[in-house]
Amino acid sequence: MASIMADGEKEIQRLLRTPPTDNPTISYLSPRAEFFLKTSLLLAPGRLDSQGRPWSTLWGGSEGFAKPIADSLVRLQTQVDRHYDSVVQALLGSVANHDAPQTQSQETGKMVSGLAVDLENRRRVKLFGRMATGSLSGRDLGKKAQLVIKIEEILGTCPKYLNKKHIVLAVPMPRLVADSPQLSPAAVELLSRADTIFVSSSKGASTMDTNIRGGPPGFVRVASNDADDVVILYPEYSGNRLYQTLGNVQTTPRAGYVVPDFTTGNVLYATGHVEILVGKDASAVLPRSNVVIRVTLAAAIFVENGLVFRGEPGDPSPYNPSTFPDTQDNAGETVTLIKKEEIMPVIYRFRCRVSSPKPVSWIPGQYATMSFQEVMDMGYSHMRDDDPGSLNDDYVRTFNASSANNSRKCRLKESIRRLTRSSLALSWNVDSSK
């Protein structure tokens, strides 16, 4: 039976004008989820700290480090960073700072969210529950956490925006580089090339959610990095419209992030206040974006060599959109298609008229950048494996001008590498108007 949509999720559906949907979350571990957990090499837990701030982390291990041990009980057993990992601190409290060979937490019932993820095969399962017991064993850098979590919610989600990584285990040697909301140069550099982040959010103190956000390298932008104002931005791409993360931050506008460097093992932990920008407000800060998340950081920790794994890069997600420009495009002119010619199977020439009250000049060889949203937008679709890039198409195309300025008529050429439903060659016709 489907769960009820939360108030925050309904509000996001209203804000984005999307139809109501059922919540497919279930309250037990299905056989499929059990098998997935047993074979996962990565799990991203989330937890609130003593100030109610969400934090995220990313743990790894060999197959079986996360596995069911009884009805809706999952055990996690892996090496952790007891010094700088805020999720370890929030879950195990003073135990994390104790130097005894083995210590047991007496605090139970703490909320824990998580995302088990298989990046090599683009699979993921979300989970939420409460800690039944937790302990640390070993000394200092060799500390191993063992948690038992009573599962209350499970949801398998789609492979969109998961960039493939081949995970291999590594020996961590964590070293604190920075502990300040203001991002260190190394953290800024990591964000400039990161293609995967994890985010945790909560609905007050009643439930939590952890999920992944992926995109092209650099899809997370540092908008400000002043000592008293650190802001990051990232786009929310088209998804399954469940809006569980957005629904949480709509009602409780905080989120915690972990940004792993799969190459070096460095890691950025951050938490902050979240604002959801929609429509013109979104495109004003990230051009060609319909929904943007603006995070004002309250705390950030950058740790060198803090991860117990590395990720060898594989294929990027075919659903990733192109990287957006740094600034909004200037207002342009409207052009009307007059004639379309197929010169070769991969080359088309478009003859069009520029509709402008002012003179417009160009020379052959210059390029024109145009938006074709009215012509090419096919409406919402969750998955479209035959043309995945179309789901986040910004409908912007660039042409070479092949004729000189002549009575406001121009000829444009487009080279088509492959014909898909998002190809302008198939979409733009004389009867399509502008």
CATH fold descriptor of the largest domain:
Pnp Oxidase, Chain A
What is the radius of gyration? 24 Å
- The number of helical runs is 8
Tell me the span between the first and last alpha carbons: 47 Å
Backbone structural class: mainly beta
Average pLDDT figure: 84
The total count of strands amounts to 24
Biggest sheet character: 9 strands, antiparallel
CATH class group of the largest domain = Mainly Beta
Overall body shape: elongated
Q: What is the assigned CATH homologous superfamily of the largest domain?
A: Electron Transport, Fmn-binding Protein, Chain A
- Runs with pLDDT <50, length 5+? 413-422
Provide the CATH architecture of the largest domain. Roll
Tally of individual domains: 2
Strand content: 35-45%
Percent in helix: 10-25%
Protein name: Riboflavin synthase-like beta-barrel
InterPro entries: Split_barrel_FMN-bd (IPR012349)
Describe the structure.
The protein is built from 8 helices and 24 strands. Strands 1, 2, 3, 4, 5, 6, 7, 8 and 9 form a 9-stranded antiparallel β-sheet that branches. It has 434 residues and is mainly beta. It is 13% helix and 41% strand. It has helices at 7-16, 31-39, 86-92, 185-193, 244-251, 280-285, 373-376, 424-427; strands at residues 42-48, 54-56, 59-60, 66-70, 73-79, 102-105, 111-118, 123-137, 144-157, 165-169, 175-179, 196-203, 207-214, 221-226, 229-235, 254-260, 267-278, 291-304, 309-313, 334-344, 347-355, 367-371, 396-401, 409-415. The chain has 2 domains: 7-313, Pnp Oxidase, Chain A (Roll), CATH 2.30.110; 334-432, Beta Barrel (Elongation Factor Tu (Ef-tu), domain 3). This is Riboflavin synthase-like beta-barrel. InterPro entries: Split_barrel_FMN-bd.
